[in-house]
Amino acid sequence: MITIISIIVILIIIITLFLTLSPQFGGSSSKQKLAQYEKLAYFEDGKFSNLVPTNMDMDFSEAIKMLPEFFKNDPSRRPDFELPLERRDSLELVGKDLPTRLVWFGHSTFLLQIEGKNILIDPMFSEIPSPTPLFGKKRYSKELPITIEKLPQIDMIIMSHDHYDHLDYESIKKLKEKTKAFYMPLGMGAHFEEWGVDSSRIHELGWWDEIQTDGLVLALTPARHFSGRGLNNRFSTLWGSWVIRGESDNIFFSGDSGYGPHFKEIGEKYGPFNFAMMECGQYNERWTDIHMVPEETAQAAKDIKAAVFMPIHWAAFTLAMHSWTDPVERVIVKAKEINQPIFVPEIGQFIELDKNLITTRKWWLEPTTPSNQMISKQ
User: Fold this and answer.
1) Helix (H, G, I), strand (E, B) or coil at 322
2) Is the pLDDT of residue 275 over 90?
3) Which residue blocks in 56-127 are alpha helix, DSSP H?
C-alpha cells in the first residue's frame, strides 16, 4: 500500500511539474491586454466567445466514455500505404517573378508564395499534435515535402488558433529566427513571447481587423471554434479565419470552424475568392458546432464565393473516429451536387493559382488498386 501511494504521489508531482514548467503550454495575456479585450463584444469574464451559441458541453464522464472508442485499433482511420508525396527542393522556392502558389504539408499547414513573399500558415511540422508523445498518434507520412531547415527565409507566419495541431512549439522554436513577422488572433502573442519571439514582430488582430503589409492585405475573420493549450485556459485566446489579398489573388483560409452565418458574411465583405482552403476532417456528431462535416464544408465554400476550394484538416493525423478518407469522399460528392468546384492536391504538390486546378487522380486510394482512376474537376 505504501508503494502504491508513493507511486501515485510521484506521478502527481511529475504531472504538476510538467503542466507548470513545460514550455509547450505557452504564456498568458497580461492584465493590460485583458482589460483591452473586455471592450470587445465577444469577450466577457476573461474568455472569448463565438458569435452564435455553440455547444461545448461534452462533460468529463462523456469524454471518458469516448476514450475506448477513440483509441480503438480501427485500420480505416489511417492509410495502410505510404501516401504519395512530392518533395520540394530549396532552389525551387526562390527566384524572381514566381507565380502565386502553395505547398500543402497535410492537415492545415501551407507554404504560400504570393507577391514575392514566403508565408507559412499554421506551421505544424512535428510528428505528433500533442504536448507530449505519450498522447496522440503519429503523422501518416514519414517525411515532409521539405524540412524547416531547408525552407527559404519566411516573411510571415499566419496563425488561426493555438491548438496543438496548428500551433506547434517545436516548429516555432526552429522557425522564429528565420521569420520576419508573425500574425495571429488576439491573445496568442503571449505564447510566442514566452517562446522568445520579440513583441515587435508579433501582430495580433481581432475579428474583422485588417492590416496592410508588404503589398498584401490581411484580415482576420470569424470562425466558430475555441482555443486553449492547458487544462484551465480554454477560450483564453481568440481563434479565426484569414483573408489574404494580393494584387491579383484573393485567398481564404478557414482555420477550424463549425458551420455558421459567418461564412456568408465573409463572402459578402471580402469575396469572391479565387482559392479557398476549407476545414474538412476530424468531425463527430458530438462536436458538430466546432468542426464542419464534409457536406457543410462544400456549402461554406459556396457561401464565401470561392471559385475553387480544397479540403484541409485531413490526410496527416487521426483526431476523430471517422475513416481517414471519409472527409474527401463525402466532400467531393456534395461539391458536385451543389456545383462547387473542388481541388484535391497531393501533399507537396505545387498549387499554382494561375493554372486550371484539376484533381487528376484519387491519390488517397492505394495507387496500385484499379479504383485509383482519373477524376475530373467537379
Assistant:
1) coil
2) yes
3) 60-70
